[in-house]
Prior knowledge:
By secondary structure, the chain is mainly alpha-helical. It is 80% helix and 0% strand. The longest helix is centred in the last third of the chain and has 28 residues, at 92-119.
Amino acid sequence: xxxxxxxxxxxxxxxxxxxxxxxxxxxxxxxxxxxxxxxxxxxxxxxxxxxxxxxxxxxxxxxxxxxxxxxxxxxxxxxxxxxxxxxxxxxxxxxxxxxxxxxxxxxxxxxxxxxxxxxx
Length: 120
């Protein structure tokens, strides 16, 4: 799997991220670090604990990282969740959180597949 195929699998925009970062090696470096970022775990834990202020911050961080890396699908869903949580809990947040969970799982699966295949 190429990095471009990884982007297609996770619903990202490869051309956009290459235009921004100008180096496939740099994109690869940051994409591989994405799976180690603790923001998603913080989001899940905060939602479970009903700490919506912290959940908002975690969703906002995910949105920003995804925007920088052009991981469009997860950026879109995390952005909607972020806006839903901006002023505290809203009933739609539960459905939006499920969408983020699905998009996150798709993103991480694509990255891990890329990582496994590129390692050899």
